[in-house]
């Protein structure tokens, strides 16, 4: 009696949408569990699965003690179903994609327009209230380059490319493709130099075919984000400046804090601020502290005092 078709077509459509939503959030669903979630019999679930297949959704039967169903990848893109939070997250991701420099700006804009058009008005308002400005300084990289590098990383195949000006041939074991400050970087192990190296993807001219396969290894520290940040600071290991010093500036804290960067500034007396910061070299650290245009006292270390003395001598020669 439960399966007598007394429900309206509207109720059936709503149940199909609920079934599709469940299949999208979990790989395997036992038939009995689906029936319980939908409040129908397993026979009704089987009929609904057949309807989804007719609409182009590749729902496969799963063998086993419980039986069940799985939504597989198909030959073509069927209509997708998103809940409200997923739809908003997708719209936000598409807006951000415009500024990634991955060469997909036009496609992302068209996809965003498609998603926004079918959104309920309350969701459109949430998305439209979100202001995201793309960084126009982002360096553009061909999508084919990014896909080729990603494929080589997954296949653990060395990549061969020309790099630099003048171009020089390189062969590297690729491990990570990372976005930082609007630029795409390849982090890889250079077996010839026996060291980790970082390359800008927009400066790479890939050669085919790829090189031999390799055994993946772990970046120093185990985290590629920390490793890349350390390399940009001139450090070979930890995400910390190799040269760190401390000074007392004859300036109030309010005048120092906005320009302290990743340093630590604290008030030690009215009109006097202690600043602990770092840089990639002692000369660079001394120069960056001199930009405050105020008298200062070097608290330490001695290398920073020496760097100030060298900087003063060079400045005197330049003044002459």
UniProtKB/TrEMBL annotation:
The keyword RNA-binding does not apply. Residues 12-67 form the HTH deoR-type domain. PROSITE patterns: HTH_DEOR_1, HTH_DEOR_2, WYL. SUPFAM superfamilies: Winged helix' DNA-binding domain. Pfam families: HTH_11, WCX, WYL. Keywords: DNA-binding, Transcription, Transcription regulation. One of its GO terms (molecular function) is DNA binding. InterPro entries: CBASS_pafABC_assoc_protein, DeoR_HTH, HTH_11, PafC-like, Tscrpt_reg_HTH_DeoR_CS, WCX_dom, WH-like_DNA-bd_sf, WH_DNA-bd_sf. This is Predicted DNA-binding transcriptional regulator YafY, contains an HTH and WYL domains. It comes from Amycolatopsis pretoriensis. The lineage of its organism: Bacteria, Bacillati, Actinomycetota, Actinomycetes, Pseudonocardiales.
């Amino acid at each position: 009696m439960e399966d007598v078709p007394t429900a309206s077509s509207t109720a059936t459509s709503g149940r199909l949408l609920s079934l599709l939503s469940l299949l999208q959030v979990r790989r395997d669903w036992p038939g009995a569990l689906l029936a319980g979630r939908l409040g129908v019999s397993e026979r009704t679930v089987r009929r609904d699965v057949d309807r989804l297949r007719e609409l182009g959704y590749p729902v496969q039967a799963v063998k086993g003690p419980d039986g069940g169903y799985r939504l597989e990848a198909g030959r073509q893109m069927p209509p997708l179903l998103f809940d409200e939070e997923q739809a908003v997250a997708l719209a936000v991701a598409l807006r951000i994609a415009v500024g990634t420099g991955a060469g997909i700006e036009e496609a992302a804009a068209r996809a965003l327009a498609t998603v926004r058009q079918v959104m309920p008005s309350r969701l459109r308002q949430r998305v439209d209230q979100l202001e995201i400005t793309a960084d126009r300084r982002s360096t553009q990289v061909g999508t084919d380059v990014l896909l080729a590098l990603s494929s080589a990383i997954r296949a653990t195949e060395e990549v061969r490319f020309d790099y630099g000006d003048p171009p020089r041939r390189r062969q590297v074991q690729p491990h990570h493709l990372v976005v930082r400050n609007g630029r795409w970087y390849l982090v890889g192990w250079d077996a010839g130099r026996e060291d980790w190296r970082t390359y800008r993807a927009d400066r790479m001219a890939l050669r085919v075919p790829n090189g031999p396969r390799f055994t993946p290894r772990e970046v120093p520290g185990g985290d590629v984000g920390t490793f890349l940040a350390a390399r940009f600071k001139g450090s070979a290991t930890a995400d910390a400046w190799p040269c760190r010093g401390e000074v007392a500036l004859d300036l109030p804290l309010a005048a120092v804090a906005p320009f302290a960067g990743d340093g630590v500034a604290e008030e030690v007396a009215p009109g006097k601020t202690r600043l602990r910061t770092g840089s990639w070299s002692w000369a660079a650290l001394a120069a960056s502290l001199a930009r405050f245009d105020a008298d200062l006292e070097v608290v330490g270390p001695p290398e920073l005092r020496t760097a100030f003395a060298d900087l003063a001598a060079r400045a005197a020669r330049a003044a002459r």
